[in-house]
Amino acid sequence: MATLLEQIKDNIANVRSMNGADRIRNRGVSQMLELRIPATWPEEDKLDWCLRDGEKISAHGQVQNLSEIPAEARQARLRVWTPAADTLLTSAALPTRSQRKIDQALPYALEEKLLGDPGELFFVHTSNGDKSLAVAATARKQLGQWLAALAAADLHPSALAPITLSVPLLDKSWNITFWGKEAWVRMGMYSGFACPADRKSTRLN
Length: 205
Prior knowledge:
This protein is of the alpha+beta class. Helix content is about 15%, strand content about 35%. It contains three helices and eleven strands; from the N terminus they run βββαββαββαββββ. It has helices at about 70-75, 100-110, 140-150, and strands at about 30-35, 45-55, 55-65, 75-80, 85-90, 120-125, 135-140, 160, 175-180, 180-190, 190-195. A five-stranded mixed β-sheet has the order 3-2-1-4-8, with no helix packed on it. Strands 5-7-6 form a three-stranded antiparallel β-sheet. It is globular. About 30% of the residues are buried.
């Protein structure tokens, strides 16, 4: 199963909403298919996709159904950007380096920061570069629904991550991207949050 925070150290630009899917070129080993799953998909919003060949976008589009993505693009490695509000990005400090003990203790160490039952959440963690852990927490049910929808279309991601972490990261500063009714704020390599977008009143202190 693909996990959150896997392969997200690469700083890449977020997937933009674009139209057209007739410029697909010969597939190379460097190609990456990126999908952006909106919070209201598939009931309302369409899903954005783009095919990257290194730093260049060779094809892109919007689809209602995953099966509408061109077959050539579906052969590339797949990275999926999930809705920002569906994943809590936080940190924790635990007095152990044992992977087993961390997995056992992490849900309870973060219990005060969580809105739901820790047992219903899927946790992924990685080092922050100091003594703390960067943690992503997502509802298991929601994660399962994403993976099931992708698998039904014969799409198997090599990585999933919240769209917050696609915002370009500039050293020692917060970075913000406005998208529709949301603003995605990236605070660090593994930290960020989403909030309602209001360009006139948004303030980052």
